[in-house]
Amino acid sequence: MMNTKSLLACAIVAAGCLTFTGCTKKAATGEGGKRKVLIGFIGKSLTNDVFQAAQTGAKDAAREYSASHDVEVEIEIRTPNDEDATKQAEAIEALVRQGAQGIAISCSEANTVQPAIDKAVAKGVAVMCFDSDAPGSKRFAYYGTDDKSCGERTVDELAKAMGNKGSIAILGGNQSAPNLQNRVAGAKAALAKYPEMKLNEPGVFYHVETPEKAAEAVQSAQNANPGIQGWAFIGGWPLFTADALKWPAGSIKVASVDALPAQLGYLKSGHVEVLLAQDCYGWGTKSVGILLDKVLDNKSPADARVVDPLTKVTKENVDGFGKNWEKWLAK
Amino acid sequence: MNPMPTVATIEKPSPARAGMLTSIRRSLGQELGLLLVVLLIGTVLGIHGWNEAAPGRPNTFLNADNLIDGIATPMSYYAIMAVGLTLVIITGGIDISVGSVMALSALGTAAVLQRLPADAPAIQVLPLAVCVPLGIGLLCGLINGGLIVGLSLHPFIVTLGTMSIFRGLANVLPAEKTLPAAGKRLPQAFTTDFMRIEVGGLQPMPLVIMLVCIVAGAFYLRMLVAGRETYAIGGNEEAARFSGLRVGWIKLRTYALAGLCAGIAGMVSVGRFGTASTSTGTGYELTVIAAAVVGGASLLGGRGTALGALLGTLVIALIENGIIILRLAQEYRLVIIGLAIIVAVSLDRLGSHLRARRASAKH
Q1: pLDDT at position A5
Q2: Rounded distance, CA B218 to CA B230, Å?
Q3: Is the full-model pTM beyond 0.85?
Q4: How distant, in Å, are the alpha carbons of A63, A73, A293 from that of A68?
């Protein structure tokens, strides 16, 4: 064991090294003297495939832009391991310290990250949101789903599959999430267009947002309400598990938001009629494009809210769509 | 009248005093070792930060902005809770409900403060902003301690239950998932003018509160009888009981203090972010336990210091900051922190083993 004097001596030497390294130095510019642009990218969690796809999109966009322009674009991924808005706020601050010129973020909680976004903007950093907005913040743009029309579209597709008649239920996820509340409101509004369709009481089923809990919620709701003939999933949670839908394929119609790899099998088996894919790869590519326009040319989109129209995935195009995921989830 | 002390008693301290001196020397050695680890990580990151610095920009690691806003502020909640948890671990107990207590305190504070106007005066805001989270934290700590002592249940089981209960209450009591509710703001006398107050472009208040808690914890453990009693029941609970110590009362007090620290962490969090949510502090208990263990607290009881809790948290904070500075993927964070815990405990065990061998060789 080292004695105290030796430890102190080592500590003094280390402190000396620290003092020495505290000075600044000239660093190299980008490859071939290109101007460097650092873009920070913050998803909600690393455990979610949609954010892996978004990160792949961001890196691909940066690589393509760097190859075709006199700029070297670098992407710094700062997505927390698990959803934690405070970690996101700290990530924004860290990126600002690192010298990022632009930041794209999907906010876990708008209120928590707003001060960090506003502080970054005050320091001259261009900040935009994707997937989940912070509308009260000073972000200059948003790219993602319009939740109300997403809910409407889900019911519209379900109505088509059911011949515009029948009794349906809505799977609503977390009752407190504002974006999901908007989707439920949109779904209910769309239902009003179909006089021969009705909500099977209580109509909306909420649950903890895990695949297992969602699958249990669907199963128990269907058992308790055998009159349900169709389901509008405003999030694809139960379909992330295997064998979530316990009825014969096609006997009960399902339309769902999201089209992750785990969900595609349900389309192929005929248990689900339609999946509405959010542009998760585009959250990366388009966000980087919008940020570079802002950082390099000071150009903002004509409308601050750029809406993703959602991609319809059915049995006919599922194989082609599935191939995208091989590229999107590449490490 | 006391007899005159003999030469022997002057030169040789009593066995109890000698044991205490040995314990203090050992903990000082451990803290110096941790300090060395901190300096070593700092040196590596400092050299890398110097290499990475863009033209005309400061060292990416060694600059006040990173050291205070990037390391000290984010680690403040963990360090404050680690002090409280270290007290509990010294008694041989554990408290895994601290993250939930932090959430409940933060939400309670936000629920109360959102009723005040955004421009309410500090004299009206600050007493509430301090008393509400500390009161909630203290109450939760008393509940933990009361159940452990009153029902003679294992601390892990009790705090596993209360972790779930407190988190559940955080979910069901407020109408919204996030507070303040839409259209409301917490008074700036507590947020921008107090917890986020800027000094030279930095926000040092969480750091200041953390240091106050560390000093208070160190004073409590080193200088007060209550602190020595905490070590006594962790060292040997039965012996402490036969010595006349009120073990139940000491445990109750210790869990109350751990709850109080979690309440302070909740206060810092809600003040810094201006919001609290049902997910505030989720999973923080594991980082806090890790910080206490890396800081030298023994899960068998009887050992640990407030300064160790600070240094243990600092090691973890430096690892997290290092992952950013070194541009490593975030996925490695948990792996590296896990390794740090195992290495720290293994080195501690090795040190104990070597000391025991040296002691037996002397006899």
Answers
A1: 46
A2: 13
A3: no
A4: 9, 11, 14
What number of other Cβ atoms are within 10 A of residue A156's Cβ?
21
Q: Which residues contact B134 (CB under 8 A, 6 or more apart)?
A: B105, B260, B263, B264, B267
> Using CA atoms, how far apart are residues B208 and A120, in angstroms rounded to an integer?
24
Cα–Cα distance measured from residue A165 to residue A271, given in angstroms and rounded to the nearest whole number: 19
pLDDT digits (tens, 9 = 90+) for A153-180: 999 999 999 999 999 999 988 776 677 8
| Residue-wise burial string across A288-301, b where 16 or more C-beta atoms lie within 10 A, e elsewhere | bbbbbbbbbeeeeb
What is the Cα–Cα distance from B113 to B110, expressed in whole angstroms?
Answer: 5
- Reply yes or no on whether the pLDDT at A219 is more than 90: no
Contact B29 A4 (CB under 8 A): yes
- Substitution target in B22, B40, B41, B43 with the highest count of A β-carbons within 10 Å is B43
- Answer yes or no: do B42 and A14 touch at CB < 8 A: yes
Distance from CA of B237 to the nearest CA of A (A): 30
- Looking up tokens 């002090």, which residue turns up? B83
Q: Can you spell out the DSSP letters for A197-247?
A: EEEEEEEEEE--SSHHHHHHHHHHHHHH-TT--EEEESS-GGGGSTT---S
Query: Which pLDDT band holds residue B3 (cuts at 50, 70, 90)?
Result: very low
- A173: closest CA of chain B, how far (Å): 13
Give residue B8's pLDDT: 40
Q: Do the beta carbons of residue B269 and residue B107 sit within 8 Å?
A: no
pLDDT digits (tens, 9 = 90+) for B59-82: 888 888 889 888 999 899 999 999
pLDDT digits 0-9 by tens, B170-200: 988 887 778 888 778 899 999 999 998 988 8
**Probe site for chain B from A29, A112, A119, A133 (most B CB atoms < 10 A):** A112
**Cβ pair B213, B222 in contact under 8 A:** no
- Specify the range with the lowest mean pLDDT, choosing from A321-330, B11-20, B91-100, B321-330: B11-20
Identify the helix (H) or strand (E) that includes residue A290: helix A280-297
Residue A36, φ and ψ in degrees, nearest 5: -100, 135
For residue B5, what pLDDT is reported? 42
Q: Vertex B138, ends B133 and B142: CA angle to 5°? A: 150
The rounded distance, in Å, linking the Cα atoms of A243 and A237 is 13
Residues 137-156 of A with CB under 8 A from B: none
- Find the DSSP H helices in chain B: 7-11, 15-52, 64, 73-90, 98-113, 122-150, 155-172, 205-223, 225-235, 237-242, 247-273, 284-294, 306-325, 332-362
What pLDDT is stored for residue A244 in this prediction? 84
What's the pLDDT at B321? 87
C-alpha distances in Å from residue A249, one per residue of A70, A252, A254, A323, B112: 54, 7, 10, 24, 52
Size of interface A-B (CB pairs under 8 A): 132
CA distance A250 to chain B (A): 37
Q: pLDDT per residue over A230-288, tens digit each?
A: 999 998 889 988 778 889 999 999 999 999 888 999 999 999 999 999 999 999 999 99
Chain A residues with CB under 8 Å of B111 CB are none
pLDDT of the residue at B312: 93
Instruction: For A58-68, write each residue's pLDDT tens digit.
Output: 999 999 999 88
Chain A's closest residue to B281, CA to CA, is A84
Rounded to a whole number of angstroms, the distance from the CA of A43 to the nearest CA of chain B is 12
Which among A76, A77, A111 has the least Cβ separation from residue B178? A111
> Residues B114, B240: contact at Cβ < 8 Å?
no
